[in-house]
Each structure stands twice: as structure tokens, then as C-alpha cells.
Write a structure and sequence with these properties.
The complex is a heterodimer of chains A (398) and B (212). Chain A contains twelve helices and eleven strands. Chain A is α+β, with helices and mostly antiparallel strands and 398 residues long. In chain A, the strands form two sheets. Chain A has a six-stranded mixed beta sheet with strand order 4-3-7-8-6-9. Chain A has a five-stranded antiparallel beta sheet with strand order 5-2-10-1-11. In chain B, 33% of the residues lie in helices and 21% in strands. In chain B, the strands form two sheets. Chain B has a five-stranded parallel beta sheet with strand order 6-7-8-3-9, sandwiched between helices. The chains are: A alpha+beta (398), B alpha/beta (212). Chain A binds chain B through residues 2, 4, 7-8, 11, 306, 309-317, 396-398, and chain B through 53, 55-57, 75-76, 79-83, 94, 96, 98-99, 103, 106-108, 110-111, 156.
Chain lengths: 398, 212
């Protein structure tokens, strides 16, 4: 409106304070918004994406092997009370017992002109805990072949360890399924020879798996021990970054497949760090708000004589505030543009990075978070406007 | 705009026993009137103008503009009056010392729209200060500052021009030039004038002379 008024008000410096305040506001707001988007992304990657894909995380719990369990094997198993307690935890979606064989098993493999015999162990889990259920994954007393699922890691171990040392050929997954295994099980004074075939490979459970129905039958007929305690429990959880899981496992001295939990630990840590950075962002925003208001009040206080004279000459408070706002609005305009550019650039880079890692991002939070940013800026403008109206109003003489 | 004073008495003068031609009296100033207020120092000349201009409110009695008590005016009303009806030359001038003479005049001109640069230059020429228009007022002499303040008051719309000892630092030649400009502008705007001074003067054709 009036360059002269600007000249009157900004004569006594204050320009640098305003620029400093703007810079703080800019950095704080950008930090806050970027962290918010990161937090949403992290949350999405670790939690919501899994639930969107209906994926649960599976954790296998076992007890730590210590001197007591060496002496008394049964103490290494889970008691009914412990199993009930695990089931009752809020983070546990589902739980199942991993049953081990109570009989001796010996496999004779002859394939590709070579043959070997090995003692084996088996485990079974309820089918709902399997990552893949092969077509042939069924067994009853009339079946002539027992389907076995092994960990993919075992095939890798064979291909890159065992086969090379023994000059055995590499085996592909398809070839493996063709291998004929003769399985001899014995116990309780009886023995039986069965056919077995590799039905599939599991990425989830590192073991030799057989169908639950076979395990029940075989343990019933070939076991001479009473029902032992299960030594491994599989649980499914919705949110693996839930810190309660780690705390629970730690408190009960259970052991687990650590990799996934470490990942969840990482997700949790990243969230905390981002949370702290976002908090610092909020603090910066609040501080720069204060710098802004204090500077404006300072300018107004230092211009006490001028304001009084201007009002005595016929200027209204509104005219003066409007004029000061014209000084401030471009600053806020620059802040808005800079924050938008900073935010969009960093989020685009981050999402590009995620895409490279094969993680699709939700992206939906963009507009919401930018809108939040503009709300902050609008609040900043309104806050400063009111602050000025009150402080100039307070300066009005008599 | 008519101005009515009704038993006006500033609080600082309340306890003084005075025989005043102004305080406590009922006086009417009608639009276009030339009024001379004369008094020795410390009798309330500046106080009187300050009350009329709405800067001071510490008085008993009433001041009415067109019959309306000025106590009921809001700050917004006063701002509107100072933009359209009342113009003043303060005794202490009150210029922005870090602005140039021209900028000081523009401050008032901007109040009511776009400034008439021709008129400002014409007035500056008449009053003999066109050479110092672009100098900071801080370095001007008191007499030059007084003329800047007069032009600032003349350039805005008004129906009453309040002059508080406006010629105290001017020589006779300068006073005559200022008087000519003021008379001309008042006539042009059909405005009245209230001027204070220490002694008698015959500068304007006064319709009313008040001795405080």
C-alpha cells in the first residue's frame, strides 16, 4: 500500500530477525512434513502393506538350551500353561504347535546313479502355518507315499556345500521333486518301510516337514514315550514391529528366528528417530513462530513514536497492520514455495529409493501432508496478524 | 462541520481560578470561520487544539461536532475525521525525522488517496522550500521544518485547519507567504481555521477572537 510506511517500520532493522525467523520456520516445517511422510511410509512398509497383502509374520519360538534342558529334555518343551500364555498375548494372531517325531527315521536316497542313507528327523505344523501347500500335500493310512517339505535353505546347502565336496550333481527344485526316497520308520518294537517324495520347498520353516496327519499316525504307532512337551511353537503376528513381541520373548527367555525381529527392531528404531526429528521440527516451527511474533512486536515497540504519530495523522490500526502484512506475506510466500519444493523433492527421492528396493509406496499422504503444511503457514499468518493488531492496539495513545 | 464548546474545562486547569474567554464558556465555531485563540504561555492553547483534534480526552464539559458529543467517537471515527475534516500543524511539528520533507508531506497525502504532486510542488515553491524537498527533515532548520508541517497539513482534505503557533520560527516574509497559501487553501476548501498565538495578530480576517 505504502512504501513510506514500510520505510518507517523497517528503518530500525528487524529485517534480519524476520529473515532468520522465516528460515527457522521453513526448516522446521520442512522437517516436520518430511518426517510425517516418512513415518507414514515406514508404517506402511512394515505394517499396513503386510496387512493389505493379508500377510502375517511368523515367528518360531523355542526355549533356550541350557544346562537344565540338557539334563532334562522335557524342560526344554513348552508346558500347557506357557502355551496358553503365549496364545493369550494380544500380538498373537494365531499359534500352533510344531510336533517332532518320536520315532527313528532313516532315509535311503538313490538318484542319478548315487545313493546314500541318512538318519532323519521330521516335524509337522498345522497346514495353516505353511507358506506353500503343494498339491500332493495329503496323507492317510492308505497313501503309499509320504510327502515331505524341506527348507529351501537345505537345497541351497546341498547345492553349494555338500554336492561340491562329494562331487554330486546340482539339483534343481523340479529335479528334487522327482527324487525317490525310501523311508524306514521304527520304534515301539515295530518298523515300516514307506515311500517318500519331496513335495515342495518351504521358505518359512527350517525343517523337514511332513503332514500333521502322518505325524499323528506315526507317533501313535511307533513311539514308546508318553506325550512329550512340544519344543517349538509357531505364532503369527500382525505387526512385527510391535515392541511388545521383543519384550515378551526376552522376558520369557525364549529363542526365535532373529532376523525378522531384528528387522522389526529396525522399523521401530527408525520410527523413533523419525518421531524425534519430527518433534524437533515442531519445536523449530514453534520457536520460529515466537521469533516472528517477538520481532514484529519489537518492530512495533521500537516504532512507538511513529505509530502514535501516524495514528494522530489519521491512520487506522488496520491500515498499519495491513501494511506490515504486506512486508510479511512475501516471506510466507517464499516459505510456502520452498517447503513445497523441499518436501516434494525429498519424498520423490525417497519413494524412488523404495521402488528400487522393490517396495511400492502408498503416495496418498502427499496432499494431506502438504495441506497440513499450508494450514501451518496460514496459522502463522493469522497469528502474526492478530499479534500485530493487539500490539499496535495496545500502543494507541490514551 | 460546526464545532460547539460547552463549558469545556481541561482537568489540569480545573483548580485554577481563572477568568477565561474560552474555558467554561459556551462557544460556537461555524464552518468556514477564522478563529484566533490568544494566550500567554501555559494557558492551554495546545491543550485546546489537542482536545479538538481528539488527542486529549482529560476535560470536563463537552465538545460537539455538528451537535454530536466527541466523547462518543471511536478511534475509527477519529481516524476518519483526521482524514477528511481536521488537519493540524502541531506546535512541536512532529515530522518523521528520517524521511525527506517530500516523504513527510506524502504521508498525509497518501491517507486519502493519490497525492497531487503538482500542488505539493506549487505550495513548496510558494513557501520557499522547494530546494529542500528531498532532504531529510532532521537536517532542516526549524523554520524549514515548520513550512514542511504546514504543507503536510494543507495537502489533505479538511474543513477545519488547526494551527498551533505555526509561524513562531518564520520571518515576516515567510509568514506572509505561508499566510497567503493557508488563506487560499481554506477558501478553496471552504474550511475554517483555528490559530493560536501568544500575542495579537491581524494575519487573517478573524470572525472570532478568543482570549484564554
Amino acid at each position: 500500500m505504502n512504501k513510506l510506511l514500510t520505510k518507517i517500520f523497517l528503518r530500525k532493522k528487524g529485517k534480519w530477525e524476520l529473515i532468520l525467523g522465516s528460515l527457522g520456520f521453513l526448516i522446521g516445517l520442512a522437517m516436520l512434513l518430511i518426517c510425517l511422510q516418512f513415518l507414514f511410509d515406514i508404517d506402511f512398509i512394515f505394517n499396513r502393506r503386510l496387512s493389505l497383502e493379508k500377510q502375517l509374520d511368523y515367528i518360531i519360538l523355542s526355549k533356550k538350551v541350557n544346562l537344565t534342558s540338557v539334563m532334562n529334555k522335557n524342560s526344554a518343551g513348552f508346558s500347557d500353561r506357557e502355551i496358553t500364555d503365549i496364545k493369550a498375548q494380544s500380538f498373537v494372531e494365531d499359534s500352533g504347535i510344531i510336533t517332532a517325531n518320536e520315532f527313528t527315521a532313516q532315509a535311503t536316497v538313490s538318484a542319478f546313479g548315487k545313493g546314500f542313507i541318512t538318519e532323519l528327523f521330521f516335524e509337522s505344523v498345522p497346514d495353516r502355518f505353511l507358506d506353500v501347500i503343494p498339491d500332493t500335500w495329503a496323507w492317510n493310512e492308505e497313501s503309499d507315499t509320504v510327502p515331505v517339505m524341506i527348507s529351501r535353505d537345505f537345497l541351497l546347502l546341498y547345492n553349494f556345500g555338500f554336492s561340491q565336496a562329494r562331487d554330486f550333481p546340482f539339483i534343481s527344485e523340479e529335479m528334487l521333486k522327482l527324487v525317490h526316497v525310501e523311508l524306514e520308520i521304527a520304534g515301539n518294537g515295530k518298523d515300516k518301510i514307506l515311500n517318500a517324495r519331496i513335495a515342495g520347498l518351504s521358505d518359512r520353516i527350517a525343517s523337514f516337514l511332513v503332514p500333521d496327519s502322518f505325524m499323528t499316525w506315526a507317533n501313535k504307532h511307533f513311539s514308546n514315550s508318553r506325550q512329550p512337551r512340544p519344543s517349538r511353537i509357531i505364532i503369527s503376528v500382525r505387526n512385527r514391529s510391535n515392541p511388545d513381541i521383543i519384550t515378551y520373548i526376552h522376558n520369557h527367555q525364549y529363542e526365535t528366528s532373529k532376523e525378522k525381529l531384528r528387522l522389526s527392531d529396525a522399523g521401530f528404531t527408525i520410527s523413533i528417530i523419525l518421531g524425534i526429528v519430527a518433534l524437533i521440527g515442531i519445536l523449530l516451527v514453534v520457536l520460529s513462530f515466537i521469533i516472528f511474533m517477538v520481532t514484529l512486536r519489537l518492530i512495533i515497540s521500537r516504532s512507538y513514536e511513529e505509530i502514535t504519530l501516524l495514528i494522530d495523522l489519521g491512520y487506522t490500526i488496520k491500515m498499519l497492520v495491513k501494511n506490515l502484512m504486506i512486508v510479511i506475506l512475501p516471506l510466507f510466500g517464499i516459505i510456502s514455495t520452498a517447503v513445497s519444493i523441499l518436501f516434494i523433492t525429498s519424498i520423490t527421492l525417497f519413494h524412488h529409493f523404495l521402488l528400487e528396493k522393490g517396495i511400492t509406496h502408498p503416495g496418498v499422504m502427499y496432499p494431506v501432508i502438504l495441506f497440513t503444511g499450508f494450514l501451518f503457514i496460514a496459522a502463522g499468518i493469522a497469528g502474526n496478524y492478530l499479534s500485530m493488531v493487539f500490539s499496535i492496539g495496545g500502543k494507541r495513545r490514551r | 462541520m460546526d464545532i460547539t464548546l460547552d463549558k469545556l474545562l481541561p482537568l489540569p486547569f480545573k483548580d485554577r481560578i481563572i477568568n477565561s474567554g474560552l474555558w467554561g464558556k459556551k462557544i460556537l465555531f461555524t464552518r468556514g470561520m477564522m478563529v484566533h485563540v490568544r494566550a500567554p504561555s501555559a494557558q492551554g492553547k495546545t491543550t485546546f487544539l489537542s482536545i479538538l483534534y481528539g488527542i486529549r480526552h482529560d476535560y470536563n464539559g463537552e465538545v460537539r461536532f455538528n451537535g454530536k458529543d466527541t466523547r462518543s467517537l471511536t478511534p475509527g471515527d477519529w481516524a476518519a475525521l483526521r482524514q477528511q475534516e481536521l488537519s493540524i500543524v502541531f506546535q512541536d511539528l512532529r515530522l518523521f525525522s528520517h524521511l525527506t520533507a517530500y516523504e513527510n508531506i506524502l504521508i498525509n497525502a497518501y491517507l486519502t488517496g493519490s497525492p497531487d504532486h503538482e500542488k505539493i510542488k506549487h505550495l513548496a515553491h510558494n513557501l520557499g522550500i522547494n530546494g529542500i524537498l528531498y532532504k531529510n527533515t532532521a537536517i532542516l532548520s526549524r523554520g524549514e521544518q515548520q513550512r514542511v508541517a504546514i504543507i503536510r497539513a494543507l495537502i489533505q482534505p479538511f474543513s477545519w485547519l488547526l494551527l498551533d503557533e505555526p509561524f513562531s520560527h518564520l520571518d515576516e516574509g515567510a509568514i506572509e507567504k505561508a499566510r497567503e497559501s493557508i488563506s487560499f487553501m481554506c477558501k478553496e476548501k471552504q474550511a475554517g481555521l483555528i490559530i493560536t498565538s501568544l500575542g495579537n495578530d491581524t494575519l487573517f480576517e478573524y470572525q472570532q477572537k478568543v482570549m484564554i
